[in-house]
Amino acid sequence: MPRPSRFIIDLAHLEHNLTQLSRLAGPRKTMAVVKANAYGHGALGCAKALENQINAFAVALTEEAIALREAGITKPILVLQGPHSSDDLTEIARYGLWPALSNRQQIHWLQHQTPNLEHVWLKVDTGMHRLGFDPQEVGEINAVLTAMGIQRITLMSHLADAEDSDSTLNHRQKQRWQNLLERNTGASDGYPNASFSNSAGTVGQLSFEESWVRLGYSLYGGSLVAPPPTLDLRPVMTFSSRIMATRWIEAGETVGYGGRWVAKRRSRIATIPVGYGDGYPRSAADGTPIGTPYGTILLAGKVSMDMITADVTDKPDIEFGTEVTLWGDSPRIDEVATHCDTIGYELCTRITDRTPRLFNR
Predict the structure, then answer these.
(1) Hey, is 287 helix, strand or coil?
(2) pTM for the whole thing?
(3) Packing angle between helix 62-70 and helix 43-50, nearest 10 degrees?
(4) How much is the pLDDT for 188?
(5) Which residues are annotated binding-site positions for substrate?
C-alpha cells in the first residue's frame, strides 16, 4: 500500500469560491490567476474547472501559459512578467497570449519585431516599486503602442499593502491610480480599461476604478484579509495523512532533531509520514495545529524531511491509522502559516510532486 499522505483538490470548492468572488467583483471582469501551478493546486486541473466561468487567466511566465495552451486551454492568458527576451515575445504572439509590458526593453523588442498581438497590458508602478512604468511615462508608451497598430491596451498596477485597507501606502497608490486614469484611459463598459484589484483588494472591497479584478489566492480559499461576513471562501486544498506510529516517552525526554521539544510529563507521541520533502514547512514551530477527528493535536519537535511528530497524550482515541489534516478545513492554511512565520501563499506553492494531488468534485 502507498504512503497515505496526499493533497485533495476540491474543484467544487474552487468553483464555489469563484461564484462568491464574482459577486464582489460586480460588473468587473474576472481573471483567474493560475501562476505557480495554480498556487500549488494544479494549473491545468484548476483551469479546466474555471474556463467556462471566467473571462481570462493570468500566469507569471510564458512557459506557464504555453503549457496551458498546449493542453487545450483557449481562454485569453495574461503573462504577468511579459517577455524576458525577443524570442519570448515571439512565443507570446505565436500562442495568442497577452503580454504585460513593464519596461522599455520590452517595448524595444516589440518595435523591432512588430508581432501580431491582440491585447497588451501596461504595468504601471504606483508605489510597489518592483516592476512597471512611471505614471508619467504612460502617455508616451500608449502613443508608441497605438502607432504600432495595437488597439487594445489595458493599464494595470499592483497593491503593495492591500492587507491594510487604511494604510498610508494604499491611499497614496489609490491617488496615483486615479490621476493616471484621468490622463490616460477611455471607458470600457462604463469602467476604465484598467485593473488594480488583486485578491486582497477584492476581498477587502477596496474601491478602484477598473474593468478587471485579478483573483489569485482567494480563489483557492485563503485570505490575508478579514473577509466580509457574507463571503464564504472554502479551502480548495486539503493536505492529509494518517498516524503511522505512537509511543510513550518519559518526562524530560526530547523529540526530534536537536531535542527542541521536551516532555514536561509522561507523553504519548504520534508520528505522521509527511515532512519538508512534501512541502510541510521545516519552520513550523512546536504547537502548530494538526486536525484529527478527535480534536486538534500539536506539533512536537522539528520537522524532518519525511516525518513530523505530535503530542497526543490527551487524545486516547488516536491510534495507528487515524487520519490527520495538516491543513484544509481545520486547521486552515493561513493558521498554519502563522506558526511558521510566513503566509499561506508560500505553503501551498512550495509543496512537492512526491505527494500526489487527487482532484475531487
Answers:
(1) coil
(2) 0.94
(3) 60
(4) 47
(5) 130, 305
Q: Residue 81's Cα: distance from chain center in Å?
A: 16
C-alpha to C-alpha distance for 157 and 138, rounded to whole angstroms: 12
Over residues 59-82, mean pLDDT: 98
Residues 6 or more apart whose Cβ sits within 8 Å of residue 288: 298, 299, 336, 339, 340
- Name which of 87, 88, 89, 51 is nearest 69 in CA terms: 51
Catalytic residue annotation = 35, 257
Q: Sign of the CA dihedral 150, 152, 155, 156?
A: negative
Q: For the chain, which domains are there?
A: 11-219 (3.20.20.10), 237-360 (2.40.37.10)
Please say whether the beta carbons of 64 and 43 come within 8 A: yes
The size of the chain, in residues, is 361
Burial of 68 from C-beta contacts in 10 A (0-12 / 13-18 / 19+): buried
> At a CB cut-off of 8 Å and minimum separation 6, what does 183 contact?
138, 139
The 10 Å CB-count burial string (b at 16+, else e) for 129-159 is eebbbebeebeebbeebeeeebeebbbbbbb
Cα-based angle 239, 16, 235 (whole degrees, multiple of 5): 20
